[in-house]
Amino acid sequence: MPPTTVRITAVDTYDIRFPTSRELDGSDAMNPDPDYSAAYVILRTSAGGPEGHGFTFTIGRGNDVQVAAIDALREHVVGRSVAELCADPGSLYRDLIGDSQLRWLGPEKGVMHMAIGAVVNAVWDLAAKRERKPVWQFLADADPAWLASQVDFRYISDALTQDEAVELLRKGRQGAPDRAADLLRRGYPAYTTSPGWLGYSDEKLTHLAEQAVTDGFTQIKLKVGADLEDDIRRCRAAREAVGPDVRIAIDANQRWDVTQAIEWTKALAEFDPYWIEEPTSPDDILGHAAIRRGVHPVKVATGEHVQNRIVFKQFLQAGAIDVLQLDSARVAGVNENIAILLLAAKFGIPVCPHAGGVGLCELVQHLSMFDYVALSGTKQDRVIEFVDHLHQHFLDPVDVTGGHYQAPTAPGFSAAMHQTTIDTFTYPHGTFWAAEAASDKPGNATKDHV
């Protein structure tokens, strides 16, 4: 008898939330009280095979909406052959993008698009585990033509064709073994946002900035945009703490109009900011271009809230950014992020991904490492954001040593959480949240926010 085909038997979802607002971790000018959260998905398989883990990141209330969006995709996934799915993750990507009734809610943006990203990332986790490789290596070892076939070129072929993508990937493979060895030996450069949350005191900022330099980081980032005098004081404290040779990036988290962004950035120019991040709406391509002209030589960076490959294409075509900050869980997963990396390579723009959150560091390291090994071939002016919280909840947490991400070696996408974390922080019935509800403490910060 032929062997039984291994199939996806279940798509299990979890609304996982952490009370980070209590210590103001993650606070910025636009999001003063985030409770870092993950809409988490596990693809179960028959015959006891490996599972696929994925998630998308939110900040509290509304994570239940995000989980519901993932649940709406279940019928496209359950019953699929695992072998066929892992041989062509793009087949599922195309089916999920193409569900016309769900597509109407985007198209290709927002809650549904993030849900697709969570599921698609779980498929890549499963595929890499089956090959016993970390995702970065799985991608770097992939045949260029096959990898290009995973990209949806609709709406971007005027800027990047499939043939061009294949050629970029073939060129990227030249010298890849040496770069992979270098990656395993030295890691990938990181910068840290941990000193710069807007809710931190000047004393805490100074201490963490000094610690960052001691730990080997050559770039830190500060949140700005709520009050100019506060920003001047905080940037001065940070510059005094790190000295003249460490880069300081600043991040406004979409707070400003275009003219205000130019004026505010110029007011902070004496502290030599390396880039201004998200100076205005992530949808305002021409506004970013105007800001870029207005604040030069300060660089303009954006991307963590850019909703799809089409908008990234236009940012690049318009010459609106100096630094592209893709996010591992904002767009529709690995497939679309490959498209974005290819676009950045075509236009010669460095990629410095957004990370932090819940598990974003764990995911995005794989994308940058693939880019270095088998696409752009360089780490010049490229860094991955690092935020030092919540990593303990993952089975394969990031390892940042000497200011560098160390390359993951465990198979998969580094996405799996400990079962105890799932049991504790699933909202509202996990043990942590159940205890909170039972205590019914007045003035509880997270009850006000979640």
Automatic annotation (TrEMBL):
- In which organism is this protein found? Streptomyces brasiliensis
The Mandelate racemase/muconate lactonizing enzyme C-terminal domain sits at: 202-298
Gene3D superfamilies xrefs: Enolase-like C-terminal domain, Enolase-like, N-terminal domain
Q: Name one GO molecular function term.
A: magnesium ion binding
Q: What is this protein called?
A: L-fuconate dehydratase
Say which enzyme class the record assigns.
Answer: lyase
| The enzyme's E.C. designation | 4.2.1.68
Q: Which UniProt keywords apply?
A: Lyase, Magnesium, Metal-binding
Task: Name the cofactor(s).
Answer: Mg(2+)
- Record's catalysed reaction(s): L-fuconate = 2-dehydro-3-deoxy-L-fuconate + H2O
Biological process terms in GO annotation: amino acid catabolic process; carbohydrate catabolic process
